[in-house]
Fold:
Amino acid sequence: MFEFELLAQDGQARAGRLITPHGVIETPSFIPVGTLASVKALSTKDLLKIGTQVIIANTYHLHLQPGEDLIAQMGGLHRFMGWDGPLMTDSGGFQIFSHGAGREEDVGKIALPSPEQEDRGGHFSAKKRRRLVEVDEDGVEFISYLDGSRHRFTAERVIEIEQKLGADIILVLDECTSPLHDYRYTKAAMDRTHRWAVRALDFFQKSSRGDQAIFGIVQGGTYQDLRRESALFISGLGFDGYAIGGALGKSKREFYQVLEWTAPFLPEHKPRHLLGIGEIEDIFEIIERGIDLFDCVTPTRMARTGTLLVRGAERFRLNLLNARFKTDHRPIEEGCNCYTCINHTRAYLRHLFLARELLGMHLAAIHNLYFIESLVRRIRNAIKGGRLRNLKREWLEKQQ
Amino acid sequence: MFEFELLAQDGQARAGRLITPHGVIETPSFIPVGTLASVKALSTKDLLKIGTQVIIANTYHLHLQPGEDLIAQMGGLHRFMGWDGPLMTDSGGFQIFSHGAGREEDVGKIALPSPEQEDRGGHFSAKKRRRLVEVDEDGVEFISYLDGSRHRFTAERVIEIEQKLGADIILVLDECTSPLHDYRYTKAAMDRTHRWAVRALDFFQKSSRGDQAIFGIVQGGTYQDLRRESALFISGLGFDGYAIGGALGKSKREFYQVLEWTAPFLPEHKPRHLLGIGEIEDIFEIIERGIDLFDCVTPTRMARTGTLLVRGAERFRLNLLNARFKTDHRPIEEGCNCYTCINHTRAYLRHLFLARELLGMHLAAIHNLYFIESLVRRIRNAIKGGRLRNLKREWLEKQQ
Structure:
């Protein structure tokens, strides 16, 4: 039911096909995030029109709300959310990090404050906050952010939950470390993640009905030897695919380097997923370093604040709230074929955001996801035609 | 460019066709409210699929944000919002009321607290609040709720704004009174509304390019002689259609009576619009009393709080947040052909509302508007077939 074919290679970049019981994913592929069984402000019909191939939901969030048993009773995640295409579930490792060390230290996957973190205004406080999570050898104990109830995830329990959810591709539980963690802690967490991976795969192999694929997760922070060790260890276990998780450094440069330290040690004929990354300026870089799948909340989150993806804008971002768009008759992006660009002007979208009309978020989300889908489709074709370098130059030059 | 044909009558109920430069409205017709040039949470594509025939936007709100000049620069309201079908603009008379006497006395069109007003919880305070509006002979002075800026509407100015907006059908400025106003004040306000109507029509006739129709508004509160007087006076001016506005009493009974005191004195061969009313339980009653058009925010507002329109539920309302829908596999309404019902379960919608996912509001708005469109379509057919009484009995019996 699962197969990954490599169709073409251009440098380290790969074009392929990942076959799942709910359809084929042409890779490289961006994966919109549907944390709570919904890609924010979009229906599954909208996603199909946009060209979305696969959605990633979140085991941690769905466990807390509405619960995996309810979803299983409703026929599984596909039927529950009305999405008949390929589905993944992330394990919750990152959420455990962000409510644990991430919360305590006020950092994300990349440690220096990114513009997003600054954008969030007062959302994150600089002072240390109590962690909601405790990690031990067996797993993770955490407190629900919804109602304060106590929960426990272990390597096996997470697989069990993901089996109830029933996505096509599931991820093992990992411990995601912070870029601020030292070598010693990062190594200890990585070793624990490895032991969890062994247990998770073992549990999966005993209980799977064959309709799900399982991906392992590489950790090791920003340490070259740990990334290499983790890639080799996790690869040796024989998962259906491999995700790269955890701390990605203190700069884009370090982040790309982490990929270079990791990807070459992953099996060539298995898909590689970079967790939680997908800003436009990163897409060429990560695909050039051998990534096949990547998910990110940024495009849909930006859409909700009136930031639209456009070629030619700084960091590909147009802030629609800017007064210069007041009477701008142009679509968000000239030449774009998304529903929003075909039917609406920048001036109208700007008005919707200023008036806090929900339609603004909906239309912006359509455009942002369409923008990424179109770019990634072009990248796939460029890889097949050996033209990836040219496409990248064209995109990054226009950016100047 | 404008024509109203009566096709059939069943008692006082009428089925007709209102022809506008942007298409035909089959009447009776419900009119979704797009206050700020957007029907909340729905795209124009969604509205077309739902079967929406016409949208009503609001002159008062659009004047404050983004302003009629900006909309004119963008090619008018149709192009601005991407809606190529018939459009109306309300004059702002009701907003002036609700920010004036309505705000001061804490009342709506119907004075006794309706379940909606109770639902709103603390939104309206019982104590008297400062009015933001002052009415004089020439017009209305008001303070923007957005930025405190002062604005002035006169009979002529409102027409001028509506000409810039460019809807197919525009409404004159009126003074909407409260059900708590006494006879004396109600009569004075009605007389002023009449003088404004004369001025508005005069201004319109001198300045119209022939692509807009203008509706007069009948006032007179809950006083039989005033309603009759107003209907006759406004009818005598020769508008393209007639709206019934203002205070509608202290109970449904009184509200229906106001219609009986008014509609018979309106010209038979012109369309009649009841402003701001459209709850399901009222629809049969108002159509039976000769109403052709009615607009209401309730269906879209309810959708945003998880209240869904369903036949068989009390007052046709299903509160999806109720725990009994937790694992309900049924669509919102069995047999309904809307996008939401075809694709999603009650359990999923309930989850979306509990998780505060925007998609919930979108899917609920689709269903609620589709529900009304379908009901009104059936009513149109029943009038044509002389079966309105039967349809009403069937609907209200199933309701028990």
Remarks:
- Chain B touches chain A at residues 36-45, 65-66, 70, 73-74, 80-82, 326-327, 329, 339, 343-345, 347-348, 351-352, 354-355, 357-363 (CB under 8 Å).
- The domain at 3-296 of chain B is CATH 3.20.20.105 (TIM Barrel).
- Chain B has two domains: 3-296, 308-398.
